[in-house]
Amino acid sequence: MPALIEDYALLGNCRSAALVNRNGSLDWLSLPRFDAPAVFASLLGNEENGRWRIAPCDSVSHSERRYLDDTLVLETTYVTASGTARVLDLMPLTETNSVVRIVEGISGDVHFEMDLVLRFDYGRSVPWVEMLDPHTLSAVAGPDRVILCSSVAPHAADHHTVARFRVSAGQRETFSLRHQRSHLPIEPDCNVEAALKETIDQWQTFASRCPEVGPYSAQVRRSLITLKAMTYAPTGGIVAAVTTSLPERLGGERNWDYRYCWLRDATMTLFAFMNLGYIEEAQAWREWLLRSVAGNPEQMQIMYGLAGERDLQEYTLPWLAGYEHSQPVRVGNAAANQHQLDIYGEVADAMAQAIKAGLPRHPRSAAISRLILPYLETIWRDPDEGIWEVRGGQQHFVHSKVMAWVAFDRAALLAESADQDTEQSQHYRNVAEEIRREVCERGLDPTGQFFVQAYDSKEMDASLLQIALTGFLPADDPRFLRTLEQIEQRLLHQGLVMRYDTDSGADGLTAGEGTFLVCTFWLCDVYVLLGRRDEAQALYERLLGLCNDVGLLAEQYDPKAKRMLGNFPQAFSHIGIINTALKLQARCPVRDRASRSE
C-alpha cells in the first residue's frame, strides 16, 4: 500500500524538491531542478522506480515528526523497544543540489537500515554504480551523476545499495546525496554539520521577517516557507507544485504536471509575498515575468518553464503505474498552448499591486502594457478554455471576462496614479465598462437572477466568487449575493467547495474529483467582505485542520474518504492560508488574487 499523499513532508533548496514519507522513504526527487527527470519516482510507481529509505530495522512503537522551528529541516523521531533515535532530513540552500540525512541516537540503541534505489529518467534507467571508496558511491546514467557519501559503508544487493548500522545515545551517522553532470570532475563532499547549521540559519533568517498574524502566525510562516521553497532561485520563477500526476481522483485521468510557472499561480504567490512584506521575492518574480512574456502579445502563454521556456510538450510515462494506479502519468502540460483570457487580468493586477506595495515602476512593464492592452481589446469577446483549463472546447467563461475587466480597470488606475494621458486612462475605463455591461447582460442565468459559469450555461462555478473579490461588483450586489447562494447550495460538499460540477462533461474529462481547497479559501474571503466573520473564521480553521502533521496541503481534499488529492504541496492552498489569515486579522494591505488551472 503506497503512502497517502498527506503522509509526505517537503524538502527543498529553492532549485528542486523532495518528498519523504512517515516511514523514512524519500519517494520523489527531481534533479537538478523542479521539472527535471526524477531519480526517485516510487511516488508514481513502486520502489524499483527509485527511492531512498532510512528507518529502524525493528518495530517502531511510536514516531513523530516536525520541522525544526521555522525551517525546512525535517526531524523524525522513532521509538523502538531498544531505544529512541531521530533522523534529520534537509536540502542545503546552495547551488549544489544535495540531500543530507543525519541519524542520531537519543537513548538506548536503535538498529537502522538504509535502502538506496537510484533510477534515473523517472524510474526507467538503472545507472552504472561503482564504489569510489568504502564510503563513496557513484551512479551514472547519461549526462547525470549522483554521488552518495556516508559515514556507514554500504554494499550492493540486487541493484540496490544497502547498509545496516546502529546508533547509541549521542552517536551520529551521516549521509549526503548530491547531483552533478557526469562529464565533470567529481566534486568534494559537503561538510554535513556545517550544512545543517547554515540551512537552519538561512530558513530562520528568512522566516524572521514575517509579521505576526494573530493566532495564525505559525501556520502563515509555514506556508510562507513552503512557497519560498517552490521558488526557483536562479530566475525567480514560481512553480504551482513540486510534483506531477498526483491524481485529482484516485484511479482517474485527471493527472497533470504542475512543475511549471503559471502566470496566475505565480501572481497569487506574488500577492502573498507582498502582503507579508517580502518585496525582494516579489521583485524577483516580476523580473521573471517581464523576461518571460516579452515580445508579441499574441504569443503570450499561460505558463512557462522555470527560466521562461515556452515548449512544455506533454507526454506520458507508460512504465510508471501511477499513484494508486491513476493513469496516465504525464510530463509537460499541453494547456500551455491554450487560450485563457484571465491571464491578462492577472498580470495587470500583479503589476498594479506591486507598485502599490512599493516596488519601483519598471520601464519594460509600461512598454509591455502598451502592447498587451490593445491586443486584449481585440480578443476579450472571444471564447477561451478558462481558468480551469478545460479540454472540452472553448466557451465564454464569465470569470475570463471578469479578469479581462480587471486588466483594463487596473491599467486605468496605474495611468491615473502616474498622471499619464487622461485620454488613455478614460479609454481603459470605457473598455472596462463595456466588458462589465456585457457580462451583466450575458453572464446571468435565463431568469437574470445570478451569474453562471459561461454564457448560455446553467452550470455554477466557484470562480464566480472572484466577481466580488476583484471588485467587479460590490459584494452586497443582489446578483452576486444570489450567485453566492447558488454556490453554497450546489457546490458545497460536506462544507468544502467544488470548482464546478464535473458530471456535466463540459471539461472534456471523466467526471469526479475532490473539493478544491483554494475555492474554499475564496469563500472565506467573501464571507469576510460581507461581514460574516464568524462563518469565515470557522471555515478557515476547518481548512487549517486539513493540513498534515507538518502543515502542508495538497490541491484538493476528499471529505468522504478524508484524504488529500492532487499535486502536493500546492501553492494555491498555501496562498489561501496566508491571505485569508491576513483578512481575518485585518492585515491585508494588498488585495490578493487567486485562481487555478486544470
Automatic annotation (TrEMBL):
It holds the Pfam family TREH_N. GO terms for molecular function: alpha,alpha-trehalase activity. InterPro entries: 6-hairpin_glycosidase_sf, 6hp_glycosidase-like_sf, GH15-like, Trehalase-like_N. Its cofactor is phosphate. It comes from the Bacteria. The keyword Phosphoprotein does not apply. Its EC number is 3.2.1.28. Keywords: Carbohydrate metabolism, Glycosidase, Hydrolase. Pathway: Glycan degradation; trehalose degradation; D-glucose from alpha,alpha-trehalose: step 1/1. GO terms for biological process: trehalose catabolic process. Residues 218-581 form the GH15-like domain. Signal peptide: none annotated. It catalyses: alpha,alpha-trehalose + H2O = alpha-D-glucose + beta-D-glucose. The keyword Hydrolase applies. Belongs to the glycosyl hydrolase 15 family. This is Trehalase. It comes from Pseudomonas cremoricolorata.
